[in-house]
Amino acid sequence: MPSNFDTMSNSGPQDKGAGGFGGPSDSSSNPSGDLPGDRFLGLQDLESFKREFIDVNRGKPLFMIRFQNLQNMELLDFIELLREHVHNILDLSGVEFGFHYIDAERALLMGISPLRRLDARSFPNIDNAIGRFHEQCLRKNVCSFDFGVGRTQCNFVSNTSEIYDVIAQSSAQNLRDNLIRWSWTDFNKVNTYFSGDSQEAVIQPTVFFDQRTKMFNVKGGEVFVGGGLYDGYHQLISDIPVGQDQERIELLIFEKLIIACEKIPGVLKFNISPQTLLDTFSSHDRVVRLTRLLHARGLNPQNVRFEIVEKPYNEEPGKVLKEVCQDFFNYGITFAADDFGVKSQSHQVILDLGLMIKEFKLDPISFKFKADEDRTKFLDNLAFIAYCKRLADNREALITAEAVEDYDTLRFLMEHHIHQYQANMFCGKMTVVDYGNEFENMRGLSEEAAMEIFSNPELAARQKEYGNIFFLARDLGML
Q1: Domain range list for the chain
Q2: Residue range 4-182 in CATH 3.30.70
Q3: pLDDT tens across 357-402, in order?
Q4: Distances (CA, A) of 347 to 310, 343, 351, 406, 474
Q5: pTM for the structure as a whole
Q6: Cα(14)–Cα(8) distance, rounded to whole angstroms?
Q7: Residue 204: which of 219, 218, 228, 222 has the closest Cα?
Q8: Which end of the chain has fewer surrounding CB within 10 Å, N or C?
């Protein structure tokens, strides 16, 4: 049966609303009977909207999306855009929808309901879907707008006006809440990241050289924000203006990445600041909840590692970093010192956490050197690497060399028994979904094959194009 809202009409609505949301009145965009039927697009007066959206669909999930402050597009063009794309946005074909424009508030209301009765769990996430549509319109410079979503399933007992009032007020409040969240960034990047799917989480694989088998294998990786909005955690955090609740925002990022990594294999590493650990997880119940989240997502806490980024923090009575980390460590979660270097403040974290630190991530400046260029610096860094080795051996920890960029540095590190790398010369960032699918294929690369690729200019150039040495080696028949 066709949707009530698919029916074209030539009768004008009571609340006409001229022009775009933010633009001046213009007869060219007046949704009245003067327009051809195929331009009317189902815009309804209030009573028709209530009757044909709420009454007809009682007992189904009802959603109302409120659009305001439309820029760079006329009202009817925007409605046409929504009608054209709504099924793709929601990834659900059996949907009916209707529109009502409130002239005094310059607000477009869009009602959405499934054609048949659906379990609430079967209905798509409207907030996420419209959030993605919002971001696409901005990115492609199609138009800009603000939106809010209201919803209800309890619609048998209340009368039509009561239901309308509830979801209309709810959508207006959600729009106001969104505006507060969007104030974090100029283009709503943080909120869009939270609304995105798992493809927006990326991982840079960690490659480990096994001395016994002389093979390179992927053993896990560091999980980042991604999806084209941000390259990494630091870029996202630095984009949030001063005065915002950064610890809360960090926690949202942290939770999203864990959810995106559902059933992903290997040792997964997540950035987190010492202050967020202190502010968020000083309560034992919070630690328990997070470990339950890991188990619920099919992740083994023993394969989860928190990379403590170098940021200042304040300890208070009951908020001691070592105690908070010990609580996680008791569940099997370990820690890494991120960007560990000669002048690094993370020395204090290492002293405090002791055996809980199972990985040292070397800052690139610690090993970008040549003996014939600066012998003093070369010897200083040689001593520093030896110091890191002693620290790692005392804690049964690993050293990960980040950003290794050339064959000579790689050979030098291997000669000094640093065998773990997080570097684009091996693997660039990839979505966690692709990583999970390819994990078993990213292993069994011999030292001989890897060195042939890195030392051969033609193969090294091809590797830069591939972005993953295991994929190149597989195509070359080297695995």
Answers
A1: 4-182, 192-443
A2: yes
A3: 999 988 766 666 666 777 777 787 778 888 888 888 888 899 999 8
A4: 10, 8, 6, 28, 41
A5: 0.61
A6: 16
A7: 222
A8: N
